[in-house]
Amino acid sequence: MIKSFWYTGDGNNFGDILGPTILHHLTQDQISPSLDEGSLVSIGSIVNLNYPHPVVFWGSGIISQDIELYSPERHKYLAVRGPKTRGRLLVLGIDCPEIYGDPALLLPVLFHKEQFENEEKNEIGLLPHWVDSQVFLEQQENFENSKFIDIRGNADSIIKDVVNSNLVITSTLHGLILCESYGVPCVYVRVGEKVMGGTFKYEDYFNSTNRDLYHLDYSNKQMNLKEIVDYQKTIPEPEIDLKPLINAFPYKILNNRVLELVEEKDK
To answer: Fewest CB atoms within 10 A around its CB: which of 169, 186, 229, 252?
Structure first.
């Protein structure tokens, strides 16, 4: 049994519930929610939370540039989401290796794209952060043949809807990562100030894939489909190397697809 912590404060949120799912499929072990000493924290912008005991971070991030960190020196950092998270830790004198990657990038290795594909495609997938849902719903009529994807819905359904979209417009980080990991064209948009931390966590992810932040800001105005389509064509492909993240994982990996990926990189 592996003790792990994942955030549950926002309900059934896709990015958070991926944590135990990914850990289970990596190890074939039971994943138990825990804040005990040594528990593994694997996904989400939760490095900055106040943990009662020392924990181990693997692929987590900080939510904003200025947020307070609680006794960060007590914890162990095997890998973090991106350079901005590591930079905050280094400034505080915390030892953090230059190993980046959000664990959600492993999804296509654990769950092949083909198992989700349909013949019918959505022209546009609308995938908001849950705090932006109302804004996306109000503007959905401007997008023909669009599918509203609920980030708090069933994880398999979310992946299926994303994989079967020709273009996804998203304001949620794990919507963006999901799209890019499966090779689905997408654009990160801001539609207001409700998402905590502004663009920090998105920039953290973009930097981890050797890119600057790419996004469109539609705060207090209507999203423009033509502008979004044209902008998507300018976004560089992410540079993703999962091997360092996999090698930093602290438990035995029993998933053959993941092991094959590491072996392939070694050849």
So the answer is: 252
pTM: 0.96
Report the distance separating Cα 247 and Cα 213, nearest Å.
Answer: 27
Instruction: Quote the crossing angle between the two packed helices 14-27 and 155-163, to the nearest 10°.
Output: 100
Tens digit of each residue's pLDDT (9 = 90 or more) over 207-249: 999 999 999 999 989 999 999 999 999 999 999 999 999 999 9
CA distances from 106 to 9, 112, 204 (A): 24, 10, 18
Copy the structure tokens of residue 149.
């994807």
Residue 180 is encoded by which pair of tokens?
Answer: 């890019």
Which residue's structure tokens are 């296509």? 108
Q: How far, CA to CA in Å, does 21 sit from each of 44, 103, 110, 225?
A: 13, 11, 10, 34
Residue 23 exposure: Cα atoms within 13 Å on the Cβ side: 26
